[in-house]
Amino acid sequence: MLNIDLRGRRALVAGVADDGGFGFAIAKALGEAGASVCVGTWPPALNIFLNLLERGKMDESRRLSDGFEAFCRRMAQQFAVPLPEAPDWERAERVGRERTARARRLGLVRAAFRRPLEVWLALDRAVWLADQGLEVEVGTFCERAVTPRNVLVSASR
User: Fold this and answer.
1) How does pLDDT run across 100-115, given as a tens digit for each residue?
2) What is the distance between the alpha carbons of residues 26 and 32, in angstroms, rounded to a whole number?
3) pLDDT tens digits for range 38-79
């Protein structure tokens, strides 16, 4: 752990694609020193990174060494949030883990329907534009490998 107080400071660490490299170790050390950390990654590695996060594969390595209670106290101080008199830290951590697991499961459902929903919304918009008397074409503006959000609705009079 860094022997420095970085509370109230922000840090950007580039080159974080998983929890096994220098970038992650640096980000974690800065976080343990109290900094609010943002990580950046190479665009092709972003989906891998997000997948690892969503599936909980980096949960243990993301855990700070001073524990949940210290993290809560640090965040409460940083955001000026009063804490209860005698919090049950074990229960709070358990409830947080349960909520995180539920959010993760909902995220999997959301991910399964993301593309069909986006296409449906684009087609719905195209039909509305056609109903307004415009000539409408629906297509893509780039390869899906560049971005999965590549639906293009083109309308003209």
Assistant:
1) 888 888 887 887 888 8
2) 10
3) 988 888 888 888 888 777 788 777 877 778 888 788 778 878
Separation CA 120–CA 128 (nearest Å)? 12
Per CATH, the homologous superfamily of domain 1-87 is NAD(P)-binding Rossmann-like Domain (3.40.50.720)
- CA separation (Å) from 22 to 13, 84, 148? 10, 38, 29
Q: How many CA atoms lie within 13 A of 99 on its CB side?
A: 6
What contacts 24+ positions apart, CB below 8 Å, involve 53-59? 54/104, 54/107, 54/108, 54/111, 55/104, 56/100, 56/101, 56/104, 57/19, 58/18, 58/19
